[in-house]
Write a structure and sequence with these properties.
The chain contains 11 helices and 8 strands.
């Protein structure tokens, strides 16, 4: 199966390496359309004859075309691709905010997939939510699911509008986690630990907590109750979160991310 990846930034490189590592595609089956040597240097596995700087007939030879450029660059890239595309190709977009309708209008092909991966895809621990146009059949949808699963887990949704929701939850989510971790590390230093000690404490706490939850059926609320004994230290901390309406702030922040995702697609 021939795969063309347009763009070799972080996500384009992630998909290329994941597809090669999982044997979904061989180096000779993969092609790159890139703008700079930096992208080429990230993917030495791909043969030189499969690396291109400008669109050409090779675009039409790909079974799956993965568009991994920044959303704001798509308008400049699309006109060069369109003349070489044909209706039987599958175009998979991982651009935030660019709708299937926009892809159809701009590229002029019917088989379209819109996906929202997140940063942990770089280590095979990503979460991707995707939707597609009705022109893909069951077999093609299965192929795309397998492709996306090479970077972690993939969830299909019928309602494309949920892609913007996924952007706010799982797409931007790692930054929320790092933000909270960073705050805890700084607090740990204030409490007397060295930065390295505080980082170890916080990293292992997050890792262990997630693994514990994944291996059980208890909800987050139930786990909180197990940790927070009445009148204890955890309850004192949670009381501050409640008084400062931290949960409401998180919800509003995610709503803001959701609205921005919608704006990027206009």
């Amino acid at each position: 199966m021939n795969i063309l990846i347009v763009g070799a930034g972080n996500m384009g490189t992630t998909y290329a390496k994941s597809l090669l590592a999982s044997h979904f595609a061989t180096p000779t089956e993969m092609q790159l359309l890139i703008r700079s040597d930096a992208g080429r240097n990230r993917l030495p596995e791909v043969p030189d004859q499969n690396v291109f700087r400008t669109p050409g007939d090779f675009v039409g030879q790909a079974d799956i075309l993965i568009v991994a450029v920044k959303p704001q660059d798509f308008g400049a890239v699309a006109p060069g691709l369109r003349p070489f595309l044909h209706p039987e190709q599958i175009v998979l977009s991982i651009m935030a905010g660019v709708s299937i309708g926009t892809l159809n209008t701009t590229l002029g092909v019917p088989k379209l997939v819109r996906a929202m991966p997140n940063l942990p895809s770089q280590i095979g621990m990503g979460m991707t939510v995707f939707s597609c146009s009705p022109d893909l059949d069951r077999k093609e949808l299965f192929i795309i699911q397998n492709l996306l699963n090479t970077t972690g887990k993939a969830m299909y949704v019928d309602d494309e509008r949920l892609i913007d929701s996924a952007t706010a939850v799982s797409g931007s989510g790692p930054a929320y986690v790092y933000y909270f971790m960073n705050a805890m590390i700084r607090a740990g230093v204030e409490l007397g630990f060295t930065p390295a000690q505080a980082e170890m404490l916080v990293n292992q706490t997050f890792m262990g907590s997630v693994h514990l939850q994944n291996q059980n059926t208890l909800s987050c609320e139930e786990w909180i109750r197990r940790v927070a004994s009445k009148g204890g230290t955890t309850e004192a901390a949670l009381k501050v979160f409640l008084e400062n309406q931290v949960e409401e702030d998180v919800r509003e922040a995610m709503q803001s991310a959701f609205r921005r995702s919608q704006e990027l697609g206009k």
